[in-house]
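Quality-control log, excerpt.
Job 1 of 2 completed; input and output follow.
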Amino acid sequence: MRLYQGAVFATLLSLAAVAAAQNYHVSNRWKLGGQGGWAYMVSDDTAHRLYITHNSRVEVLDSRTGKPVGAVTGLKSTHGVALNPDGKIGYISDGAGNSIAVFDRATLSIIATVAAGTNPDGIVFEPTTKTVWAFNGRSKDVSVLNTSSNSIIATVPLHGKPEFPQVDEHGAVFVNIEDKNIIVKLDAATQQEVATWPLNGCESPTGMAIDRTKHRLFSVCDGGKMAIVDYSSGKLLDLASIGDSPDAAGFDSNRRLAFSSNGGDATLSIIDTTKPGFPTTQTVKTAKGARTMTLDASTGRVYLVTAEFTAAPPTTATAATPHPRATPVPGSFEVLVVEK
């Protein structure tokens, strides 16, 4: 009888541990309204702000309350936001404007507009050289901005269409090449490509997150896979299982969890990076179209954005629209808050 009770108690403890690890949920929804589509979002953890690219503007919210702080306006088609660690300046890739907008984070006013390549998309600040790297989707290259002079100091050709970048904060820049299923490593000091790593089993890599302690990159791919790469060697460590049609990724260094926001099946996949095989510990139901996310590392909160849609998207993908999407209903744009 005691053995039986002990086994039951151990089972209950195990179930409790699993339940504790799997209690992320949508805790809030913040209605923003407005019109048009969206691309990336980024959390300024220190200032408690969210920057969300939304059609021709960048929405700025208080990440604690969801209340609007203001917006950066006067743009054509915003894609990504990069933040200078000085806490004062930010950079926006304006896709239709073929430019990088430099803005004051206190006033949210644009202080410079710098011509880039064709359709700049992913953008990142590189701290060792104090440069901004804007990855141009149509010209298939990257524009390197000197932040002291707000001028382009290099244009680096790439193997194909770049998607999301990351930096290791020691002079290396990484980017997914969506149409070639590879990661390219660039040297920030020389503005040169130094390595190309195949992502076998990863189709159309888009979002990328980074673990700077374990030297890992997490690339989300079509086909329900997240590719985990050791960026010291370029070795593909594993392919984790995630949801359908992912677009963005995140990594929580405090909790050692990787995230994938999946627009196809309206889920957020949560991966345990401490265990062999990188198992999915939880799949959180989010909302249709919630494909873009960012993580506040100070709180562990995950933020996603979506909207209501008018009709189903076209079923046939093309080179111009590899991921066909439905049209957002005006006024329905919102932020979803996911937390423990």
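Job 2 of 2 completed; input and output follow.
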Amino acid sequence: MTWVKICGMTNLEDALVAVDAGADAVGFVFYEKSPRYVTVEKAREIVAKLPTGVEKVGVFVDYNVGSARNIFRQVGLTMAQVYAESIGEWCAWYESDEIKLMWAIPGSALKEEFLIQLGTSKRRFTALLVDSGSGDRPGGTGIRFDWEGAKIGIWHLGSEVPVVVAGGLTPGNVNDAMKMLAPWGLDVSSGVEASPGKKDHEKVRAFVRAVREMDRRVG
């Protein structure tokens, strides 16, 4: 089945709704410029009350690896989602501590030269997240990247590493994304919100339901 992550959690109620709806993962944004920013203390309170089997993902933007490692351990996270130009130090942490690591890149980067540059290093992390953000808004933009332009790159990468698609997903278009891109996973934040940092519970349920229905149709 397709892996589903509901990101931008700021309160326990929303996280529990996501879990109850059938999400595989919930995400916590430790980026102070984001409207979905959550403190370490609050994230720890939420994580402590979530089921063991749910992936708890910390979102880190231009973070020092040592600082991120401290947050990871304090909160009780299981995966790091990293927005950084270079992830060599992150990969070293991943390989030494056996954490799960997801590197986020913009969909616009999926050009032939990037795929060549990536080379065998793609085996050094758990998954690759293809998102629509850039600059001060690395994610959670509510905007789709160019699916048509990126689909061949995503198909190519998907044969060698799990690819998660994010950016502008909603309950209404997630099936189109699955048909066109055939990703291993999906990551949604603003597309299931009532307001930044607060989830619309029916949209969360509708998103997961749409993904599972598509999973059943394609077998």
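Post-run check on job 2. Helices lie at 12-21, 40-47, 65-75, 88-97, 112-118, 147-158, 174-181, 201-218.
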